[in-house]
Amino acid sequence: MQYRKFGRLDFKVSALGFGAMRLPTVGGDDGRIDEELAIKMIRYAIDNGVNYVDTAYGYHRGNSEILVGKALKDGYREKTMLATKLPPWHVNVREDMDRLLNEQLKKLDTDHIDFYLLHALNKDTWNKLYNLGVLDWAEGVIRKGLIRYIGFSFHDDLETFKKIVDAYNWTFCQIQYNYMDIDHQAGMEGLKYASSKGLAVVIMEPLRGGRLANPPDRVRQVFDSFPIKRSPVAWALLWLWNQPEVSTVLSGMSNFEQVKENIEIADKSGINIFTPEELRLIERVRETYLGIKAIDCNECGYCMPCPNGVNIPVNFHLYNEGVRYNDFGGPRWHYRNGLKESERASSCIKCGICEPKCPQHLPIRELLEKVKETFEATV
Ligand SMILES: NC(=O)c1ccc[n+]([C@@H]2O[C@H](COP(=O)([O-])OP(=O)(O)OC[C@H]3O[C@@H](n4cnc5c(N)ncnc54)[C@H](OP(=O)(O)O)[C@@H]3O)[C@@H](O)[C@H]2O)c1
Questions:
Q1: I need a surface site. Which of 116, 190, 245, 346 has the fewest CB within 10 A?
Q2: How far is CA 56 from the centre of its chain?
């Protein structure tokens, strides 16, 4: 295993961290973890040098923390830095923070958590927790020895990310980052920003939730055309480890082979080991992915505003994401949960005011119908 700097701390973190959000399950039920296999996988990773395990209150319908607690018995807890997260959506008063942390310590069967994160912060959840005095609370539980270090994980825009980084002397943060997300959420600029302020940066979704492991033919051909042969997973992970600002890369491994493979890849990782040609290959792969879209919308927004409130560019963006990664699950979730009813394709009244304004001359009404059928059909 390769080890890397963890921000300002005198602790070397393994290049690969274990993300306990996609553990093997039984019968396709996310809440029923295959305990025996999952414990074996986590212990195998630790036996092979992994020293950072990341879980959260809600993973696997609350059962990931219990499983991780079991996996870390028999001497494994002492070899591992344990990270879990405070779920802001369950916090309404300050006492909730104590209640949740106590519950988590019990579930994990440990007397302390090494790295405690405010989970999935965005503008709203950050403001809510801040106003409830979360930083003062965190300092209190650090003094009591219940947690060692405080950080946050993040899903919002770069501006919000910088604001949160600047709001406190955090030890670490966790961001969604992979070669497709360099300009998305915190992105590459956020990574560099947090690192320049002394934060350790933990990477989540390094394979975009697994999508980059199975690229479409057009992307595969780009990889195949390169003289150095590596799997798409190896390219994606090594690209992350190539960057000095990355502390550890969490992978949510769902079977034993993935654990073995990712450890082998991590063993070969290093900072600045990619040649300019290898970096260029990843750029070409990104461009090829971005070129895969069913709707030729470049999100210029000239079609807006829609008199009925439909957010046309976002509807097309979500549809193109589904086509690009051949997976409509995430986009469908965003369509149903991230868009107001009036913003969804189904709110189009087919007035057609948008169409003459589109520089691409897209048949917007017809395309919105396709988006609606895709995202609103029962699955
Ligand atoms: N704080 C937050 O807001 C937040 C959000 C997301 C994630 N996280 C944390 O970050 C961790 C990592 O994120 P992630 O799970 O999304 O990571 P990821 O690596 O982007 O996706 C994990 C998926 O990638 C596939 N995969 C991994 N290794 C592979 C290999 N060698 N070959 C083929 N496929 C492979 C598997 O897909 P299949 O199962 O389909 O085979 C696996 O389930 C999570 O587990 C969690 O601990 C935190």
A1: 346
A2: 13
Quick one: average pLDDT of 136-163? 97
The confidence score (pLDDT) of residue 298 equals 85
Q: How far apart are CA 4 and CA 42, in angstroms?
A: 20
Ligand 1 pocket, mutate which of 18, 22, 84, 246 (most atoms under 8 A from CB): 22
Q: How far is CA 2 from CA 50, 238, 270, 272, in A?
A: 9, 12, 8, 14
Q: Read off the DSSP letter of residue 111.
A: S
CA nearest ligand 1 atom 41, residue? 254
Select the CATH number that applies to the domain covering 3-283 from these four: 2.40.50.140, 3.40.605.10, 3.20.20.100, 3.90.228.20.
Answer: 3.20.20.100
Asked if residue 379 has pLDDT above 80, the reply is no
Is ligand 1 within 6 A of the CB of residue 205? yes
pTM for the whole structure: 0.91
* Ligand 1 and 207: CB distance under 6 A: yes
d(CA 156, CA 137): 24
Alpha helices in 72-186 (DSSP H): 94-108, 123-131, 134-143, 158-167
Does residue 332 line the site of ligand 1, with CB under 6 A? no
Residue 378, pLDDT score: 76
